[in-house]
Design goal:
The protein is an alpha+beta fold. The chain is built from five helices and nine strands.
């Protein structure tokens, strides 16, 4: 797990340029970790704590050794994807090795009757104010791996998660809350294009502020009339993990890709991408550039009112062009 948190600003060279954001087509509904009649029995908190402690140990060993093999042993899904890319950047000397870090005061949310079995953890990093919300999923035979994680944004708080009489959490496996990643993608794409979005979200650092920041970057780069392109977000067709909140809403963890696609419109210009992409491709692009960030959002969807994004993690995953 990488601790870095990206809020979407881009590093621009004097002659760099992004482009206008375009409209996105609605994405398909994304799968959830669904309930099934023969789902495995829920873990006890003691069992979940043992799994999480082992994850922490292997995570620090993997980071110390920059080991892809240990990452694959410990992670899956979006988390594994971004961490393998991070190791590539470390080997290219574009990212520093991650120092060991340890969690304190973890809270466990263990839903029953889900398949594959999974549970969520919300924990603070010892010696800092950083707090992570992550999901551990059974990948077969009781082998749990970290599938997705995101970090609590400044000024935000985790909604209250509903618990049953036995302390278990309730997984949300159906309903419109599961498609919040698609709606958020539409919202951010329209906002970055300086257009009115058909979707609405509560204002905050990961919604209105993020969209406006990208709109400024897009406008700045387009004003040079040297490049043309766009930035847009699209929800990933990967499992969505959601927990019921005490107000009857849901906290939804989902993966979204932000794509950057730029093409030069004049000769003798070049584009320098954000430092996040260095080590994944050239340091400069002269004809075209395509880059992607993988975001993991924790979105609170209340029973009434506007959704708000409370946690996030973002890492560059690809850079191509010429």
């Amino acid at each position: 797990m990488r601790k870095g948190i990206v809020l979407g600003s881009v590093a621009l060279s004097v002659l760099a340029a992004a482009g206008c954001g375009g409209k996105t087509k609605p994405a398909a509904q994304h799968p959830s970790a669904s309930a099934k009649p023969h789902a495995a029995p829920a873990l006890t908190e003691a069992q979940a704590r043992t799994i999480f402690t082992n994850y922490e140990r292997v995570n620090n060993e993997a980071n110390a050794k920059v080991s892809d093999a240990l990452l694959r042993e410990n992670e899956t899904g979006p988390m594994l994807e971004v961490d393998l890319v991070g190791n590539k950047r470390i080997r290219a000397k574009q990212e520093k090795k991650i120092k060991a870090f340890y969690y304190q005061s973890p809270q466990f949310f263990i839903p029953r009757d889900v398949s594959p079995a999974w549970f969520a953890v919300f924990a603070q990093v010892r010696g800092s104010k950083d707090k992570e919300f992550l999901v551990m999923v059974d990948t077969g035979g009781g082998k749990y791996k970290a599938a997705a994680g995101s970090w609590l944004a400044k000024g935000q708080k985790l909604p209250s998660i509903a618990r049953g009489a036995d302390g278990s959490a309730t997984a949300v496996t159906t309903g419109p809350a599961l498609d919040v990643g698609t709606r958020l993608s539409t919202y951010l794409t329209y906002t970055a294009a300086r257009q009115k979005s058909p979707e609405k979200f509560a204002s905050g650092p990961l919604t209105s502020t993020l969209g406006r920041n990208w709109a400024k970057s897009v406008l700045q780069i387009n004003s040079g009339n040297r490049w043309q392109g766009r930035t847009e977000w699209k929800a990933r067709p990967q499992p969505v993990y959601a927990l019921k909140t005490t107000d009857g809403g849901a906290l939804v963890l989902s993966a979204v890709v932000q794509g950057l696609r730029y093409t030069a419109t004049k000769p003798d210009v070049w584009y320098k991408p954000s430092d996040d992409f260095l080590g994944l491709g050239p340091k400069r692009y002269y004809n075209r550039f395509t880059g992607e960030w993988l975001w993991t959002y924790g979105t609170y969807v209340p029973s009434t009112g506007l959704p708000s994004v409370v946690t996030s993690g973002a890492h560059a995953i690809s850079a191509t062009g010429s």
